[in-house]
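Minimal example, chain plus adenosine monophosphate.
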Amino acid sequence: MKMLEKVEEFNMDKVIDKFEELTKDAERVQRETLRRILEDNASAEYLQNLGLHGRTDPESFKAHVPLVTHKELEPYIIRIIDGDASSILTGKPITTVSLSSGTTQGKPKYLPWNDELFETSVHMNQTSFAFRNREFPIKNGKALSFIYSSKQFKTKGGLTAGTSTTNLFRHEKYKCTMKALQSQCCSPDEVIFGPDFHQSLYCHLLCGLIFREEVQLVSSTFAHSIVHAFRTFEQVWEELCTDIREGVLTGKITVPSIRTAMSKLLKPNPELANLIEKKCMGLNNWYGLIPELFPNIKYIHGIMTGSMEPYVKKLKHYARELPLVTADYGASEGCIAANVNPKLPPELATYAVLPHLGYFEFIPLSELEQTNCGPNFHRVDPHTVGLTEVKVGEEYEIVTTNPAGLYRYRLGDVFKVMGFHNSTPELKFVRRSSLLLTINIDKNTENDLQLAVEAAAKLVAAENLEVVDYTSHVDSSTEPGHYVIFWEMNGEASEELLGECCNCLDKSFVDAGYISSRKTSCIGPLELRVVRSGTFQKILEHFLGLGAAASQYKTPRCVAASHSKVLQILSEDVVRSYLSSAFN
Ligand code: AMP
C-alpha cells in the first residue's frame, strides 16, 4: 500500500479521484492486493506449510489456503502473543495485537495488528470523509466525539495489546493523519484517554456544552455510545449546569489528569448554565435535544446499521431532523468498506468495498443454507466468489485476507449486494451470520429477534414507554427448551400489557421451524423477563472490565449458557416474567 499522504497534502478531490480509479478496475486491484499480501508474507510459516510455492494468483490461493475462522488461527495467535517472534502468520513479526469487542462470543478475541492495518483505517476514513464533507461541509468547527481509548497492556510475550480503536488512537501517526479528517474534538486527550469510562463520558458532555456554539458534529464509533451518552445527559444535566455555573468540576471526577485538563476549560458561566437549563426544561421528553444543545450542528455520525439499528429510533428522537450518517464497515480484522453515499438514511445505507484494503471473497448465503452449515459447522469449504463476481440482490458472507496475517478468514457478517459503484459492490449490512436462537428445527437470526422486539415494542410505545435494550437466551434447562427475551424498559407497564407483549414476541418469530415446533410443543412457551433499569449498563461494565472499549461496545443479542456472568447479571435483575399462551 502506498505510504500515507501527509496531512498538508490531504486533498479531498484527490481522494475521491483515487477511489473512482481504484473502483473502476476493482478486479485488477484485487489481484494486485492479493499478490502484494502474499509476497510480503511469503516467508510466513502458515503460508509456507500450505505449499503455495510463491504463487500469488487467486486461483492457486483458493486451491491451497483453507477458509478459516478465529478458532483455527487461535493456536498461531497464541504463539505470537506468548512471544514467539518467528514469522508465523506474517513475514515481519507482529508486535501489536487487537482485542475485538467480544460481545458476540462472550469474550474478546485476539487478532494480529500492524502498520499496514493502521493504513487501511486511514484510507477508509479518508475516503468516507471526502464524500461526507462534500455533502455536509464543516468549517472551523468542533466535534463532540464520544470516543474512549481503553488501556494498552503487554501480553505475556511482551506484545502491545489493546482494542483496535485504542491501537488506532495511540498509533504514532494517528494525530497527524486521522485528526486532519475530523473537526477538532472538543474534549482534551486526558478525557479520551481517561481510565474511567463514566468520568470520561461526563466530561465529554461538559466539553460539548462549553463549546456548544462551535460543535458542528456529534459522533462516536457506534450509535450505541451516542444514545448512551444522551441518556446519561438526561440523568446528569443539572449537575453539568451546576459545574458550568460555578466553574468547578463535580467531585465525582476524581482522575487527577482529567481534573487538571478540565479546569483549564471550565470558567464560571451562569448565562450558559441558565440557557441550558431553560432548554432542557422546555423539551418534551427530550425530543430534539441534540440540535437544541448544539445550534450549529450539521449531522450525527457513527455506525448505525446491523446491531446498531435498534438505537436509530432513539437517535432520531434526540436528533429531530438532523441527518444521521452511518460510519464505515470495518472490524478488528481490518477495514473493508466506506460509506460513500452519506445522504442515505441509515435504513438504506450501503458500504462500498475498497478493493485495495484486502482481498475479499464472498460465500453465497444460499450455498451455506443448502449445506446447513453456519461458520462453525462447515465440513467442506463452501464455494466463494470474487469481489466483482457478486450479484445484485444476493446475500453473502464475507471472507477477508488482510495484510496482518489473516488468510481467507470468515468474518461472520452477512451482506446483501445493493448495486455497484463502478466495479466494486455496494453492500448493505444484513446481520451476523451465526444463528442466534435455535432449539429444534427453528432458525432465528439477530434480525428475526429485532423484528420480534420491534413488533412488541410498538405495544408499549402506545403507552409512551420504550424498550431501552434487549437480549435473548435459549433456556434448555426446561423440557422442552424455550426462548427467553430479556427487556429493559424506561418505566412501568401493566401486567396485562406485558402479557400481550410476551404473546406478540412469540407470534412474531415467523420462521416455519419455530412455528411448527411451538405447535407440536417441541419448543415451550416463550418467556419475557423484564429486568431492572440499569441492567444493560451493568452488562456494558462487565465487558469493559474484560478489556472491551466502550467505543466498540455492542450489546450481545443472545447470551449462551456458557456466558454465565452475563446470564447471572440478567437473572439477578429480573423483576417480572411472563410466559406466552399456547400456540395454535
Ligand atoms: P469489533 O471487531 O469488535 O470492532 O467488531 C466488528 C464487528 O462490528 C463487525 O464484524 C460487524 O459485525 C460489526 N460492524 C462493524 N461495522 C459495522 C457496520 N458499519 N454496520 C454494521 N455492523 C458493523
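Confidence is low (pLDDT under 50) at residues 1-8. The pocket of adenosine monophosphate is lined by residues 100-101, 164, 303, 305-306, 329-332, 411, 413, 429, 432, 552 (CB under 6 Å).
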